[in-house]
């Protein structure tokens, strides 16, 4: 407990830790439930029904209110709004700030697990488009981990900078410019994490842009060798590796998306 108090509570990292724990645990539980529902539906679709057997009511299933299916992102958005309002209004100290952070992380996981529904305004949970939700979850988890490990959202504080406010301002501007450059190069996740971890922003900014990014379309048009290198780096093998990660985290996509 002394270690936890010294290195987590006293450094202000406790809310970030609880938010990350709530985020990860909630995502694992929700994905396990939705994958179980999906497996049960696929089994029912391929099996021959027995008219003499009384169907059992499943313990886990979709939630409906008034005949309308309520996606779990609704509960997540409500939870994020509620915990945010309570935090802004009351700013509770230890341990209630950790409780609110835990609930906030849980709500964020519920909402981001259906991020693709926000983006496409359609129930694409198990489709190829639905894999965007896994991207959002991975980015959210990476940001949570980076905020937990870093003392400042922009990597440094004014006390860290040598030479006063001028050096501090220049450092922050360069840092944010590198993060924005990552976004222009099509590396949204790298840019977001790079806001918290400066070295990530630097590495993402100096490496090749994705071929479909605004940076590549504008800067690589007259440099075909750069475009060819980018297409090779982010080609079929890169996509296959990333797809394996998505499948491992969230399950495989198919062409028949059931309601999740």
From TrEMBL:
Transmembrane helix is among the record's keywords: yes
Protein name (record): Integral membrane protein
Reading the lineage from the top rank, the first entry is: Bacteria
Q: What are the alphabetically sorted keywords of the record? A: Membrane, Transmembrane, Transmembrane helix
Q: Any transmembrane segments, and where? A: 12-30, 100-121, 133-153, 165-184, 191-209
């Amino acid at each position: 407990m002394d270690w936890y108090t010294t290195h987590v509570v006293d450094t202000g990292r406790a809310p970030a830790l609880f938010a990350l724990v709530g985020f990860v645990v909630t995502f694992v539980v929700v994905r396990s439930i939705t994958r179980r529902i999906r497996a049960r539906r696929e089994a029912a679709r391929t099996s021959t029904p027995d008219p003499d057997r009384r169907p059992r009511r499943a313990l886990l299933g979709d939630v409906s209110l008034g005949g309308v299916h309520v996606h779990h992102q609704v509960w997540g958005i409500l939870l994020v709004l509620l915990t945010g309002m309570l935090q802004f209004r009351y700013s509770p100290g230890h341990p209630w700030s950790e409780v609110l952070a835990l609930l906030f992380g849980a709500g964020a996981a519920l909402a981001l697990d259906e991020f693709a529904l926000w983006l496409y305004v359609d129930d694409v949970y198990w489709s190829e488009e639905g894999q965007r939700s896994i991207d959002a979850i991975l980015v959210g988890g990476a940001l949570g981990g980076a905020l937990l490990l870093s003392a400042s959202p922009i990597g440094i504080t004014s006390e860290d900078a040598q030479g006063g406010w001028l050096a501090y301002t220049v450092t922050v501007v360069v840092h944010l410019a590198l993060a924005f450059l990552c976004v222009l190069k099509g590396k949204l996740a790298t840019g977001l994490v790079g806001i918290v971890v400066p070295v990530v922003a630097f590495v993402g900014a100096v490496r090749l842009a994705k071929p479909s990014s605004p940076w590549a379309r504008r800067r690589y048009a007259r440099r075909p060798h750069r475009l060819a290198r980018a297409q090779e780096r982010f080609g079929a093998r890169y996509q296959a590796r990333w797809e394996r990660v998505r499948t491992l985290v969230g399950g495989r996509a198919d062409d028949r998306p059931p309601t999740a």
